[in-house]
Design goal:
This protein is an alpha+beta fold. It contains 4 helices and 7 strands; from the N terminus they run βββαββααβαβ.
Amino acid sequence: MDYVITREDEGRTAYYTLRWSPFAKADKYEITRSVPAIGGIAEIYYRDREGKLNLFCLQRSWYGGLRAVLRERCDPIIEKDPWRLSVLVKWRDRIYYRWTNTESFADMADVMYFLAETSCAGAGGETSGRFDRIFVREIDAGKLVTI
């Protein structure tokens, strides 16, 4: 199955579908082996003591690809951001990720805007400017929908 972002548009309204990869436990060797070096969006979660997945990093990757960004964001030896590093250290064996890819930087900007606005309380940045309205539907192999 392809884990891709697709778009249909009607005038100035965009309808995106995100096909997420299955959730995987973060392991630098597994990421290197299984995640492609292509552009896309990744979400990284920690599983708390009650078993709930908590999003702590929403990341886009264009140059360098998803493999590189996930390796950096999931490895406490490489991660530089103090807050993300603290999460990685505290929940070290309970980090999970999923990803989807796109060949369109503009589509990635629109989807990141939507995801950040809905999950990060207004931290969406800017859209591509092509659409007045953006809708997103998630399809997840594990049946987890976060929006």
